[in-house]
Amino acid sequence: MEPLRLGPSVIVMASVSSSSVEGAVLEAFGTPIAEGHVRLLDLVFVDVLPDGELWCQEASSTAVRLAGLSPLVPGLIGIDDVRQLAARVADSTHLIVALFEQPWLTKLSQDNFNSGGVVAAVEPVPAPVLNAVLDLHKTS
């Protein structure tokens, strides 16, 4: 069978304190990429303006490239994706929206596809939820 060009991916939205994203925030996104844990497919900076309107910019600055954040397929994150995600946050918020592909999951997906199957769902569990469940198990 023909290889899949991309594997299952996850969109990550992070709220940041300033529309001028640099330093530790970019490094936090860059480290798992540099270590080969994920591939960055797309990266968009979003400002949710006071009136709820959105200002979006594909990541292309020098600081982004220096942090090792060169999206492989810019443009995959669409405005509809951004609107849906931004609806979860307050106005006047600055966001980074990243689309990550997970290499181990890509291999699983390809092997499954070659056998006639498909990875039917990949559901992220937010860290606060997972940690709350862990705390419940510790106390029981």
Helix content: 25-40%
The rough form would be described as globular
Number of domains: 1
Average of the residue pLDDT scores: 84
Number of E strands: 4
Can you write the helix and strand succession as a string?
Answer: EHEEHHEHH
The parts where pLDDT drops under 50 for at least 5 residues are: none
> Main sheet, how many strands, which sense, barrel?
4 strands, antiparallel
Structural class: alpha+beta
Number of helices: 5
Rg, please?
A: 17 Å
- Please give the alpha-carbon distance between the first and last residues: 49 Å
Q: How much strand content do the residues show?
A: 15-25%
Largest sheet strand order: 1-4-2-3
Pfam family, one: DUF6325
InterPro entries: DUF6325
